[in-house]
Amino acid sequence: MNPYETQKLLSEYLFFHYGKPDSYLTWPFGPVSALQYPVRCVVDCFDLSALHSDSRALDIGCAVGRSTFEFAFACGEAIGIDYSHAFVDAAAHIAREGELEYEYLVEGELTEKGMASRPEGLDPNRVHFEQGDAMALREDLGQFDAVLAANLICRLPQPEAFLDRCVDLVKPGGQLVINTPFTWLGEFTPPARWLGGRPETGESLEVLVRRMDPYFKLAGTDNMPFLIREHRRKYQWSVAQSCRFIRRDA
Whose CA is closest to 209, among 198, 196, 226, 199? Predict the structure, then answer.
């Protein structure tokens, strides 16, 4: 069974995307800079001044949708696509109804209730969610001014095929942000298809930047920490490599 269809992962990601910082991380000595990652993937990684009410944004691997909602503040249309039916159904429910109650784990079998809420002041008509495969995106998506692929490429069986598709998705002058911790695992991506991380290829960042030429210019890189909570005393702290690319003129 796809783990991203389980109630456990759905609850974890709803809390990851929508949990209030002081309830998500209750330890004052914890890594607070890693909180609110889905929001930071938009506000810290894109040049939002280049977007406007006629702009289109695409959030590929949107999970339960918080980054997609953030795009809708800057763009007239924001589309979120994820492989998980459960994630997409939850995101669409939040867009439609304004909120979704969920339970998150405290420890053992103890849980507490949380509420995932649509950001205040957002026009839900600007947002659309759909289930889809990043390796087989529908052909009629069109082009976008901003495309985000957060924590995605190291979970794809053929990341280079996805990068090739991005050439058609991003308008000339448009922005593509790829955030990834480069956690290459054979269970997701055959080692021969990893973008780096092997002695014969070197580090993944260099391979990725070379691979994006000649269609994209690297506009900047950053380190993006994020924190995934399993229960009150166990977290996964990771640092994604963030790359912002600008689509060269065709």
Answer: 196
Largest CA distance in the chain: 55
Rg of the chain over CA atoms, in angstroms? 18
Cβ neighbours of residue 166 under 8 Å, at least 6 residues apart?
147, 149, 176, 216
> What is the residue-level pLDDT of the chain in tens, covering all 250 positions?
577 889 999 999 999 999 999 999 999 999 999 999 999 999 999 999 999 999 999 999 999 999 999 999 999 999 999 999 999 999 999 999 999 999 999 999 999 999 999 999 999 999 999 999 999 999 999 999 999 999 999 999 999 999 999 999 999 999 999 999 999 999 999 999 999 999 999 999 999 999 999 999 999 999 999 999 999 999 999 999 999 999 999 6
Residues belonging to the chain: 250
Q: Which long-range contacts (CB under 8 A, 24 or more apart) does 198-206 make?
A: 204/180, 204/241, 205/241, 205/243
Fold of 3-247: Rossmann fold (3.40.50)
C-alpha dihedral (226, 183, 72, 143), degrees to nearest 10 = 160
